[in-house]
Amino acid sequence: MRIRPVTSDELPVLQDIERAAGAPFRDLGMAAVADDEPPTLEVLEHYRRAGRAWAAHDGDGPPVAYLICEPVDGALHIEQVSVHPDAARRGVGRALLAYAADRAREEGLAGLSLTTFTEVPWNAPYYARLGFRTLEEAELTPGLRKIRAHEAELGLDRWPRVCMRRD
Length: 167
Known about the structure:
alpha+beta; Aminopeptidase; about 25% strand
């Protein structure tokens, strides 16, 4: 598996990955998540230009997974990490998170943060296995509170969510 910065011509592929990765949410009764549109090309381009969009490639083919992130309150916040189901269970997501952790260290950031669903097996339980811990309400930084408020506006709080961090 090779990880590298996303190129502009790969942005539509990232949207396809997002749609495919969202489909399994339907089986959990989360059709709204499954049907949610991926980030727009403009949003993905913003992350790409900022140097905050990385893709995992299996050989020389197109991306099979991607991660977008941004610094939030001293940590590198994972905005989205998505793996195409055809590449699932092969350590691709883990590799992308390790790559992001290396970038965070290079930038002097204290670790990684993310928000996620608590009851989705490939969300909070998966991240906990990778060393992330759930943050208590009192530990939430202003930036994380703002992210959670935005998620609530989008209706994501219909299902339990948490903020997690790995130092």
